[in-house]
Amino acid sequence: MELFESGHGKGPCDDLGGTTKRMADEATRSGRHAISDAFEFFNWTKSSSFKNVTFRYVSFEKCKAKAQTMSERKVKSVTGTMKIHSIVGNGGSNILTRYTSCYCSSCLSGTMCDSWTPAKTCDGKVFIQT
């Protein structure tokens, strides 16, 4: 993991995103593909050389519907949001946080190591969505 800006780690997903964008730019510049929106980008990924990567297209309508659903939920604020870099669900409505990313074998397998802490709400209680 490389560190650039203060508190912002760069990991494997950042590399993949940068490589994908660079390859899409090259495909457009060379005239092999016309990519002018998200759906055309998604279609390009199907013919790209990425073999072990799955790309998914999520339409504007699905995003809008999800935003509406989320706006109807009552969610408590989490203390120290600006300092938190990583968040993971811990079953039910509990979340765990870290100030940096973790790429240990436990976290990469989805088990989560002991370095994660339960999030606290602004009133000092462990975060529970209501």
UniProtKB/TrEMBL annotation:
Biased composition (Basic and acidic residues): 1-13
Region (Disordered): 1-27
Name of this chain's protein: Uncharacterized protein
UniProt source species: Dreissena polymorpha (Zebra mussel)
